[in-house]
Protein backbone atom coordinates (compact mmCIF):
# COMPACT_ATOMS: atom_id res chain seq x y z
CA UNK A 1 0.00 0.00 0.00
CA UNK A 2 1.59 3.24 -1.14
CA UNK A 3 1.13 6.50 0.74
CA UNK A 4 -0.78 9.17 -1.20
CA UNK A 5 0.00 12.21 0.93
CA UNK A 6 1.78 13.89 -1.98
CA UNK A 7 -1.38 13.61 -4.07
CA UNK A 8 -3.66 14.96 -1.37
CA UNK A 9 -1.83 18.18 -0.58
CA UNK A 10 0.47 20.61 -2.34
CA UNK A 11 4.03 19.34 -1.67
CA UNK A 12 6.12 21.50 0.68
CA UNK A 13 9.86 21.97 0.80
CA UNK A 14 10.64 19.61 3.64
CA UNK A 15 8.26 16.95 2.37
CA UNK A 16 9.45 16.56 -1.16
CA UNK A 17 10.70 19.60 -3.01
CA UNK A 18 12.96 22.59 -2.45
CA UNK A 19 11.87 26.06 -3.40
CA UNK A 20 14.16 28.53 -5.07
CA UNK A 21 14.51 31.66 -2.96
CA UNK A 22 15.57 35.15 -3.92
CA UNK A 23 16.43 36.27 -0.39
CA UNK A 24 19.54 38.31 0.17
CA UNK A 25 21.96 37.19 2.84
CA UNK A 26 25.25 38.22 4.35
CA UNK A 27 28.35 36.99 2.52
CA UNK A 28 30.61 37.36 5.52
CA UNK A 29 32.15 34.11 6.73
CA UNK A 30 31.16 34.61 10.35
CA UNK A 31 30.60 31.80 12.82
CA UNK A 32 29.65 31.53 16.46
CA UNK A 33 30.34 28.32 18.40
CA UNK A 34 30.85 26.54 15.08
CA UNK A 35 27.49 27.69 13.74
CA UNK A 36 26.99 30.26 10.96
CA UNK A 37 26.15 33.51 12.73
CA UNK A 38 22.80 35.24 12.59
CA UNK A 39 23.80 38.68 11.39
CA UNK A 40 20.33 40.27 11.46
CA UNK A 41 16.87 39.38 12.73
CA UNK A 42 18.18 37.45 15.72
CA UNK A 43 15.02 37.60 17.86
CA UNK A 44 12.30 34.95 17.89
CA UNK A 45 9.72 35.78 15.24
CA UNK A 46 12.05 37.92 13.13
CA UNK A 47 13.24 36.74 9.74
CA UNK A 48 16.93 35.95 10.28
CA UNK A 49 19.89 36.59 8.01
CA UNK A 50 22.57 33.90 8.11
CA UNK A 51 26.28 34.25 7.41
CA UNK A 52 28.06 31.72 5.25
CA UNK A 53 29.60 28.79 7.11
CA UNK A 54 33.34 29.00 7.76
CA UNK A 55 35.70 26.13 6.99
CA UNK A 56 34.61 22.51 6.76
CA UNK A 57 31.09 21.80 8.05
CA UNK A 58 30.58 19.39 10.97
CA UNK A 59 29.94 15.77 10.04
CA UNK A 60 27.35 15.26 12.77
CA UNK A 61 24.04 16.96 13.57
CA UNK A 62 24.56 20.11 15.63
CA UNK A 63 21.86 22.01 17.52
CA UNK A 64 22.27 25.42 19.14
CA UNK A 65 19.54 27.06 21.22
CA UNK A 66 19.62 30.73 20.24
CA UNK A 67 16.89 31.64 22.72
CA UNK A 68 15.00 29.21 24.94
CA UNK A 69 11.25 29.36 25.29
CA UNK A 70 9.25 28.51 28.39
CA UNK A 71 6.84 26.05 26.77
CA UNK A 72 6.67 22.27 26.92
CA UNK A 73 9.47 20.12 25.51
CA UNK A 74 8.76 18.60 22.12
CA UNK A 75 8.20 14.85 21.91
CA UNK A 76 7.84 12.48 18.98
CA UNK A 77 4.21 12.40 17.96
CA UNK A 78 3.57 16.06 18.81
CA UNK A 79 1.93 18.18 16.12
CA UNK A 80 4.09 21.26 15.89
CA UNK A 81 4.06 24.58 14.09
CA UNK A 82 7.31 26.32 13.19
CA UNK A 83 8.78 29.15 11.18
CA UNK A 84 12.12 28.50 9.53
CA UNK A 85 14.82 29.70 7.18
CA UNK A 86 17.11 27.25 5.38
CA UNK A 87 20.47 27.82 3.74
CA UNK A 88 23.34 25.63 2.57
CA UNK A 89 26.52 25.79 4.68
CA UNK A 90 28.62 27.12 1.79
CA UNK A 91 25.97 29.52 0.44
CA UNK A 92 25.05 33.13 1.07
CA UNK A 93 21.51 32.66 -0.22
CA UNK A 94 18.59 30.96 1.57
CA UNK A 95 16.85 28.28 -0.47
CA UNK A 96 13.56 28.64 1.40
CA UNK A 97 11.88 30.32 4.35
CA UNK A 98 8.39 30.48 5.86
CA UNK A 99 8.73 34.04 7.17
CA UNK A 100 8.06 35.59 3.77
CA UNK A 101 4.96 33.42 3.31
CA UNK A 102 3.68 34.56 6.72
CA UNK A 103 2.45 31.01 7.21
CA UNK A 104 4.08 28.68 9.74
CA UNK A 105 4.90 25.14 8.66
CA UNK A 106 2.96 22.28 10.28
CA UNK A 107 4.32 18.80 10.89
CA UNK A 108 4.07 15.83 13.20
CA UNK A 109 7.44 15.36 14.87
CA UNK A 110 9.03 11.96 14.34
CA UNK A 111 6.54 10.97 11.65
CA UNK A 112 9.03 11.12 8.78
CA UNK A 113 7.30 14.12 7.22
CA UNK A 114 10.58 16.05 7.11
CA UNK A 115 14.28 15.34 6.73
CA UNK A 116 15.80 13.34 9.58
CA UNK A 117 17.85 16.28 10.82
CA UNK A 118 14.65 18.08 11.77
CA UNK A 119 13.06 15.09 13.48
CA UNK A 120 16.23 14.42 15.49
CA UNK A 121 17.25 18.03 16.15
CA UNK A 122 13.91 19.37 17.38
CA UNK A 123 13.04 16.63 19.88
CA UNK A 124 13.49 17.95 23.41
CA UNK A 125 13.44 21.62 22.43
CA UNK A 126 10.92 23.89 24.15
CA UNK A 127 7.98 25.68 22.55
CA UNK A 128 8.89 29.34 22.14
CA UNK A 129 12.55 28.56 21.41
CA UNK A 130 14.66 29.62 18.46
CA UNK A 131 17.18 26.95 17.49
CA UNK A 132 19.82 26.67 14.81
CA UNK A 133 20.40 23.29 13.20
CA UNK A 134 23.43 22.24 11.18
CA UNK A 135 22.43 19.08 9.32
CA UNK A 136 24.94 16.79 7.55
CA UNK A 137 24.01 15.28 4.18
CA UNK A 138 23.08 11.86 5.57
CA UNK A 139 20.35 13.50 7.67
CA UNK A 140 19.34 15.90 4.88
CA UNK A 141 18.97 15.21 1.18
CA UNK A 142 22.07 13.03 0.85
CA UNK A 143 23.76 12.22 -2.43
CA UNK A 144 20.73 13.04 -4.58
CA UNK A 145 20.20 16.64 -3.41
CA UNK A 146 16.83 18.28 -3.96
CA UNK A 147 15.93 21.14 -6.30
CA UNK A 148 18.45 23.93 -5.72
CA UNK A 149 20.06 21.96 -2.88
CA UNK A 150 23.23 20.36 -4.22
CA UNK A 151 24.14 16.72 -3.61
CA UNK A 152 25.94 16.11 -0.31
CA UNK A 153 25.03 19.58 0.96
CA UNK A 154 25.25 20.43 4.64
CA UNK A 155 22.17 22.43 5.57
CA UNK A 156 21.69 25.19 8.13
CA UNK A 157 18.25 26.04 9.50
CA UNK A 158 17.04 28.66 11.94
CA UNK A 159 13.78 27.33 13.41
CA UNK A 160 11.26 29.14 15.63
CA UNK A 161 9.04 26.68 17.51
CA UNK A 162 5.68 28.44 17.56
CA UNK A 163 3.28 25.84 18.89
CA UNK A 164 2.93 22.18 19.86
CA UNK A 165 -0.09 19.98 20.48
CA UNK A 166 -0.17 16.51 22.01
CA UNK A 167 -2.05 14.12 19.77
CA UNK A 168 -4.60 11.65 21.20
CA UNK A 169 -4.54 8.04 20.03
CA UNK A 170 -8.09 8.10 18.70
CA UNK A 171 -11.19 10.13 18.05
CA UNK A 172 -13.66 10.29 20.94
CA UNK A 173 -17.29 11.29 21.09
CA UNK A 174 -20.91 10.24 20.97
CA UNK A 175 -21.82 7.48 18.54
CA UNK A 176 -24.02 8.67 15.69
CA UNK A 177 -26.55 6.27 14.16
CA UNK A 178 -25.49 4.71 10.87
CA UNK A 179 -28.90 3.74 9.56
CA UNK A 180 -28.50 4.34 5.82
CA UNK A 181 -28.00 0.86 4.33
CA UNK A 182 -26.61 2.37 1.13
CA UNK A 183 -23.60 3.91 2.90
CA UNK A 184 -20.47 2.28 4.35
CA UNK A 185 -20.52 1.30 8.02
CA UNK A 186 -17.53 2.43 10.10
CA UNK A 187 -16.37 0.89 13.37
CA UNK A 188 -16.59 2.89 16.59
CA UNK A 189 -13.77 1.42 18.67
CA UNK A 190 -11.38 4.01 20.14
CA UNK A 191 -8.32 1.82 20.71
CA UNK A 192 -6.08 3.71 18.29
CA UNK A 193 -6.31 0.97 15.66
CA UNK A 194 -7.79 1.40 12.19
CA UNK A 195 -11.59 1.30 12.32
CA UNK A 196 -13.39 -1.31 10.27
CA UNK A 197 -15.09 -0.06 7.12
CA UNK A 198 -17.77 -2.18 5.42
CA UNK A 199 -18.81 -0.93 1.99
CA UNK A 200 -22.20 -2.06 0.60
CA UNK A 201 -22.61 -3.77 -2.78
CA UNK A 202 -24.95 -1.04 -4.02
CA UNK A 203 -23.97 1.78 -6.37
CA UNK A 204 -22.07 4.67 -4.74
CA UNK A 205 -23.73 8.03 -4.10
CA UNK A 206 -23.25 10.70 -6.75
CA UNK A 207 -22.71 13.52 -4.24
CA UNK A 208 -20.19 14.00 -1.45
CA UNK A 209 -21.07 12.33 1.84
CA UNK A 210 -19.59 13.68 5.08
CA UNK A 211 -21.15 12.07 8.17
CA UNK A 212 -20.16 11.87 11.81
CA UNK A 213 -19.43 8.40 13.17
CA UNK A 214 -18.25 9.71 16.53
CA UNK A 215 -19.19 13.34 17.23
CA UNK A 216 -17.04 15.20 19.72
CA UNK A 217 -17.55 18.56 21.40
CA UNK A 218 -14.37 20.06 19.94
CA UNK A 219 -13.88 23.23 17.94
CA UNK A 220 -15.27 23.48 14.44
CA UNK A 221 -12.64 23.15 11.72
CA UNK A 222 -12.16 26.07 9.34
CA UNK A 223 -10.65 26.05 5.87
CA UNK A 224 -7.65 28.01 7.18
CA UNK A 225 -6.80 25.35 9.80
CA UNK A 226 -4.26 22.57 9.60
CA UNK A 227 -5.61 19.26 10.85
CA UNK A 228 -3.84 16.25 12.34
CA UNK A 229 -5.54 13.05 11.24
CA UNK A 230 -5.47 9.30 11.16
CA UNK A 231 -7.33 7.79 8.24
CA UNK A 232 -7.93 4.76 6.10
CA UNK A 233 -8.87 5.18 2.44
CA UNK A 234 -10.64 2.55 0.34
CA UNK A 235 -12.07 2.10 -3.14
CA UNK A 236 -15.85 1.77 -3.21
CA UNK A 237 -15.69 -0.68 -6.12
CA UNK A 238 -13.80 -3.54 -4.46
CA UNK A 239 -13.38 -2.29 -0.86
CA UNK A 240 -9.61 -2.39 -1.35
CA UNK A 241 -7.61 -0.11 0.96
CA UNK A 242 -5.27 2.17 -1.00
CA UNK A 243 -3.85 4.21 1.87
CA UNK A 244 -3.71 4.15 5.67
CA UNK A 245 -1.83 6.11 8.30
CA UNK A 246 -2.41 3.26 10.73
CA UNK A 247 -0.02 0.98 8.85
CA UNK A 248 2.93 3.26 9.61
CA UNK A 249 1.68 4.31 13.04
CA UNK A 250 2.21 7.95 12.08
CA UNK A 251 -0.43 10.64 11.84
CA UNK A 252 -0.69 13.01 8.89
CA UNK A 253 -0.95 16.81 9.09
CA UNK A 254 -2.93 18.54 6.35
CA UNK A 255 -3.03 22.32 5.90
CA UNK A 256 -6.57 22.37 4.52
CA UNK A 257 -5.86 25.37 2.30
CA UNK A 258 -3.33 23.21 0.45
CA UNK A 259 -5.43 20.06 0.14
CA UNK A 260 -5.91 19.35 -3.56
CA UNK A 261 -8.48 16.55 -3.15
CA UNK A 262 -11.63 18.65 -3.24
CA UNK A 263 -13.90 16.17 -1.46
CA UNK A 264 -11.44 15.67 1.37
CA UNK A 265 -11.27 19.40 2.09
CA UNK A 266 -15.00 20.00 1.67
CA UNK A 267 -15.84 16.99 3.82
CA UNK A 268 -13.69 18.03 6.78
CA UNK A 269 -14.39 21.77 6.92
CA UNK A 270 -17.17 22.40 9.44
CA UNK A 271 -16.61 19.16 11.36
CA UNK A 272 -15.51 19.14 15.03
CA UNK A 273 -12.02 18.36 16.26
CA UNK A 274 -11.89 15.00 18.04
CA UNK A 275 -14.56 13.41 15.83
CA UNK A 276 -14.53 10.41 13.48
CA UNK A 277 -15.98 11.14 10.06
CA UNK A 278 -17.07 9.02 7.10
CA UNK A 279 -16.33 10.57 3.72
CA UNK A 280 -17.62 9.17 0.44
CA UNK A 281 -16.02 11.17 -2.36
CA UNK A 282 -17.40 10.90 -5.91
CA UNK A 283 -14.97 11.01 -8.85
CA UNK A 284 -15.67 14.67 -9.66
CA UNK A 285 -14.37 15.63 -6.18
CA UNK A 286 -11.60 13.01 -6.19
CA UNK A 287 -9.22 12.27 -9.07
CA UNK A 288 -11.82 12.33 -11.88
CA UNK A 289 -10.76 10.71 -15.12
CA UNK A 290 -7.12 10.37 -14.03
CA UNK A 291 -5.77 7.17 -12.53
CA UNK A 292 -3.46 7.71 -9.53
CA UNK A 293 -1.12 4.95 -8.39
CA UNK A 294 -3.45 2.12 -7.29
CA UNK A 295 -6.60 4.22 -7.80
CA UNK A 296 -8.31 3.62 -11.17
CA UNK A 297 -9.84 6.48 -13.11
CA UNK A 298 -13.39 7.51 -12.17
CA UNK A 299 -13.13 5.92 -8.72
CA UNK A 300 -15.38 6.74 -5.78
CA UNK A 301 -13.26 6.95 -2.63
CA UNK A 302 -14.21 6.11 0.94
CA UNK A 303 -12.35 7.57 3.94
CA UNK A 304 -12.75 6.99 7.65
CA UNK A 305 -11.01 9.97 9.24
CA UNK A 306 -10.15 10.63 12.89
CA UNK A 307 -9.80 14.39 13.37
CA UNK A 308 -7.27 14.29 16.20
CA UNK A 309 -6.25 17.97 16.45
CA UNK A 310 -6.10 21.25 14.63
CA UNK A 311 -3.29 23.76 14.51
Task: For this entry, give a set of tags.
mainly beta, single chain, 6-stranded antiparallel sheet, 7-stranded antiparallel sheet, 311 residues, 19 strands, 3 helices
Rg, Å, rounded: 21 Å
**Helix content percent band:** under 10%
Tally of contiguous helical segments: 3
Uncertain runs: 15-30
| H/E series | HEEEEEEEEHEEEEEEEEEHEE
> Care to count the β-strands?
19
Structural class: mainly beta
For the record, give the distance between the C-alpha atoms at the N and C termini, rounded to a whole number: 28 Å
Task: State the major sheet.
Answer: 7 strands, antiparallel
How would you describe the overall organization of this protein?
By secondary structure, this protein is mainly β. 6% of the residues lie in helices and 31% in strands. The chain has helices at residues 5-8, 116-122, 262-268; strands at residues 31-32, 35-36, 38-40, 49-50, 62-67, 79-88, 94-97, 105-108, 130-135, 155-165, 174-175, 185-186, 197-198, 209-215, 226-235, 241-244, 252-255, 276-281, 301-310. The strands form 5 sheets. Strands 11, 14, 15, 16, 17, 18 and 19 form a 7-stranded antiparallel β-sheet that branches. Strand 1 (31-32) and strand 2 (35-36) form a beta hairpin. The model is unreliable at 15-30 (pLDDT under 50).
Amino acid sequence: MRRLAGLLVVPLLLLSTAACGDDKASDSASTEKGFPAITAGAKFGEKPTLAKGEGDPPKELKTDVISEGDGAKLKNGDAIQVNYLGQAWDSTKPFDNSFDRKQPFDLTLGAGMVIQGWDKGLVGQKVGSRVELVIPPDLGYGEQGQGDIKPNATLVFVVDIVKATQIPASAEGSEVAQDNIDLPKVGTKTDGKAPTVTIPKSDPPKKLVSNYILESKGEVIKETDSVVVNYVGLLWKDSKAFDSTYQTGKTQTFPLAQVTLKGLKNGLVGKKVGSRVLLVIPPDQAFGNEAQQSIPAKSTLVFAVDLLAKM
